[in-house]
Amino acid sequence: MKRIWDRVEARLARVTTSGEIIREVDGFRALAIGLVILHHLLALYLQNTTRFGEVQVPADWLRMRSESTLVRTLYPSFLGVQLFFVISGFVLGLPFARHYLRGRPKPEMRAYFLRRLTRLEPPYIVAATILFAAGVISGKGFVSLLPHFVATLFYSHNLVYGVPSAIEGVFWSLEIEVQFYILAPLLATVFAVERPWLRRGVLLTAILGWSLLASRVSLVTDTRASLTLIGFGQYFTAGFLFVEIYLSRFENRRVSLSAMWDAVALACLSGFVAIYWTVKSWRYVWLLPFLIVLLYSALFQGRMGAPLVRARPIYLAGGMCYTTYLYHTGLLGIFSEQTMKLWQPALPFLADLLLQASVLVPIVLSLCAALYYYTEKPFMIRRWR
């Protein structure tokens, strides 16, 4: 078995410019993409079966949450996207923090932006083109879909149309990621503040202030701002806060693993559910960035959590999360049309959902692994100077 996993790792392991891979962070990516897949699988199940009658997601989410305890419990799985945002804040902030706080060389701006263009743009363009072609073939119309395709390619669909991309809805978050990528070098100057208490105070204030701004924006009907960095910057800033924790506690230090931290991680996950269990959840969303940072910190130190996120199947799955994110909804849609025709109304809801997941998720992950190997990993190797 070890030999098999060695071969799998040799083919699927990420390649980074620095050569550094923090396995726990890839494990966090696996958690995030797992929650995203769960959310979309649940949505497809509710739409494609008649267990609860005719359902139009997301319009019927609120009704479904009131009718089913399981739906209400699993509904916050959409927070996988926010988990990704915190990871992005951490990954992009770490090199700048090491420069300001540890005296490492400053990231060179030309290399910083070229890395984005050569590493992430090619697989994104390939995915968008494939999904555009699939939309045309399915009858959406070349002429009507072309403007959406162009806007999607230039990460401007949210701004131009005020709604997620008609090519692939999940691309909305990638547009926000790009906005942060552009501003990250400027925002990361917070690490130039020498006094730790002041620097961390600035970060805490920024997270709280941005959360308040985002909550106000989200309450405004039909606003494009809610689909920009304005609506989600608190999560990227929380990633900077996690940089502080990582550098002070986890980097180059031996951490004693404790079952107490496993309990904290479970409490954080329960906290996600508790927030959206309330009727007026918007009053408490400011807690989410802090819960995510606490969750990641707990997983670094948990007796069960730390080995779990470092396990090879987990961190390898996390390493190919970008490709999985690009294609998973399309693949789930294709195969669920067939598998959910066989749903079992006699089975309890949870058992039937798990049965669907046991069939669909391995298929989707296997196909995404192949797509990752051929359309993403080749661009991880730097071929420019």
Question: What does this 3D model show about the protein?
Answer:
This protein has one domain. The model has no long low-confidence stretch (mean pLDDT 91). Helix 5 packs parallel to helix 10 and helix 7 runs parallel beside helix 17. 70% of the residues lie in helices and 0% in strands. It has 385 residues and is mostly helical. It is globular, with a radius of gyration of 21 Å.
Task: Please render the helix and strand layout as text.
Layout: H1 2-12, H2 23-48, H3 61-67, H4 69-74, H5 80-102, H6 109-119, H7 121-137, H8 142-153, H9 157-161, H10 172-187, H11 196-218, H12 233-250, H13 259-277, H14 288-301, H15 305-310, H16 312-319, H17 321-339, H18 349-375
Helix pairs in contact: 2-5, 2-16, 2-17, 2-18, 5-10, 5-12, 7-8, 7-17, 11-12, 12-14, 13-14, 17-18
Count of discrete alpha- or pi-helical segments spanning 4 or more residues: 18
Rounded radius of gyration (Å): 21 Å
Find the count of extended strands (DSSP E, 2+ residues).
0
What fraction, in percent, of the residue positions are helical? 55-70%
Helix-strand string? HHHHHHHHHHHHHHHHHH
